[in-house]
Fold:
Amino acid sequence: MIRIEDIIEKVGRNHQQADLDLLRRAYFFSAREHKGQTRASGEPYLVHPLEVANILADMRLDEVSVSTGLLHDVVEDTLVDLDTIRKYFGDEVAHLVDGLTKIAQISNVSKEEQEAENVRKMLLAMVNDVRVVLVKLADRLHNMRTLQFLKPEKRKRIAQETMDIYAPIAHRLGMGKLRGELEDLAFQHLHPEDYRTLTAQLEKRRPENEAFLKDITGRIEEKMHEAEVPFVRIEGRVKRLYSIWKKLRRQRIDLDQVYDLVAARVITPNEIRHCYAALGVIHNTWKPVPGRIKDWIATPRDNLYQSLHTSVIGSKGQSFEVQIRTLEMHHIAEEGVAAHWKYKEGRRGAHDEDEALKALRSLVEWTQEVKDSKDFLDTLKLDLYPKDVYAFTPMGKVIQLPRGATPIDFAYMIHSEVGNTCTGARINGRMVPLRTQIQNGDVVEILTSPNSHPSRDWLNFIKTSRARNRVRHFIAEQQRAESIEIGRKLFEKEAARFQLSAKKLLGDTDGEFKRIANEYGYGRVEDLLAAIGYGKIIPRNIIAKLLGPEKFEELDTQKESRLRSGMRAVRRLIRLGDDAIVVRGVDDLLVTRARCCNPLRGEEIIGYITRGKGVAVHARTCKNVQSLMVNPERIVEVEWAGKSDNASYAVKLLAITENRTGMIAGITGAIADIKTGIRDARASVAEDDRGRIEVTVEVFDVKHLDKVINSIKSVPGVLDVERLQGIA
Ligand code: MN
Structure:
């Protein structure tokens, strides 16, 4: 078993000012809490945190990370809570342990293999300190090294998760060595047969490969000396098992055809020119394979990997690869993010990485300039995916959303029907408003009801274009349905005036009405009805087409007499519609004055397409207008047509007066003096001892009304006059 003192010594060597006592205390605490627990291998549990801490110490991480390694399982596996960790070991360690506990929860939720990419991103998005990921990777590495003690199914599951989630994260963070080991270990458990066969094949070739590598590395050394190109060392390596296996599978070739099975590696001092000089030496020694030179120095890979690769043909005709890089590039290739703990000298590189890599790059670069360890720790804070959040369904499926997304966005990501019938949401078990912004790791449950529909209001807060499009689409569909309904009713009304059966006309889908629809350029009867509902087409014109000009003229005259004989409801529509008010851009449309505000000629007005009652005209000042604005597409511009039609409107006025006799007579007299009709007048006395006289007058327009009001105001004893809303 590894000793804590060895770990402490390593950390002390790499970090002169480290608080080594923190490590000692973390060790004793972990030992006490895990006491009596054993691993599947039968060893005491403590072996695991110790091994993890040792891996971290080998990465040259600081004492906080290594202490976290010692404590990483206590919150999850023992009764210790985070507050206790904070109390004994401070905020930083507690923060890292908390991050690890959260990651453990994520991997417990998600089981779906195809979600791996999202789980990886979520994992990285959730942690704001790269050390959490490093501790997690060290934890996973030790678990993978001891995986053989678990039952086969569990082994497979963990190996798969390692392959899908942790190896790619290591790759993303540029940690080539760790990634390689994780992949080879996972491969061993996922494809045990292939693993055994391949190992045996390679074992058979080992003496041959070793001799070959010894030969070429020796040749390189010799030639480098001759050419006086400096180098740190020349290495020979055999390609990793999992990489070979992937290559064999992908290209359907056998082991003999893998040209880069063995490779030599030239490590130069930290000057790029030595790399290119070395490349020249290699190409002078062996013939390069055309098209196989890759310059990852000029254009680094997006995980910061830099190297020159070339394939050359050996003296016996077999090709092999040579990799050339500086010592610094080598460390970054092997250790990625972790390398900067070791590395002090910097370099600037390409500019076009995404946010995550910028964060990573600045992390690597910036720390090279910083001497103070406090500043250094601040640079470890990461926001690898600043634009995204990741949330779960209750079943553990990961949903990726833009930052600021709400449960509605989430619902539409699941299915458009879920979005369309969404009534509410629970986040982490609690009911929340639909405009709540989802946070990383939230478990979001959408409540639906078959009768529920999207609301226009949602457009004010939803974030995804997918949700936006679906809501807009739904509203447009709904408006169309309403317009068809309005159009149908308007047409029915007009048809009734000509004693036609709208039902019959509309029911016959291949008949006249359909023909007229086509004439207007509409494919279906519904389209024509919708056009009527939107006020684009006047039902009267359709009737005219149906009847032909003569018949229409004849019936239209009859209409007038019928109206006189008492179709009052219809008459009102006609009178107000045809003559008094027009909808801008349309000559003739059924229009009604809204009962709530009863607008007068001359007042500013707006029109609103109602359900089934044509266009309702409101005074712009009407208190209901605001709420109608919720459906701006139904608002139409209207104006008073031509001259006054001599129609009068009843308007109710309220006069506040002193409490004295003769007031009602004085007021009605003043109104009569300006030749205005009075329909009704009544007086009362209010609690404040003021007289209240309500009088309903007949006026032609708003100017006329002003005149009436002024004449009432001129009556002695009248204190104030106001117009009452609503029809008299
Ligand atoms: Mn662990």
Q: What stands out?
A: The pocket of manganese (II) ion is lined by residues 48, 72-73, 139 (CB under 6 Å). Residues 49 and 73 are 8 Å apart (CA to CA). The first strand starts at residue 233 and ends at 238.
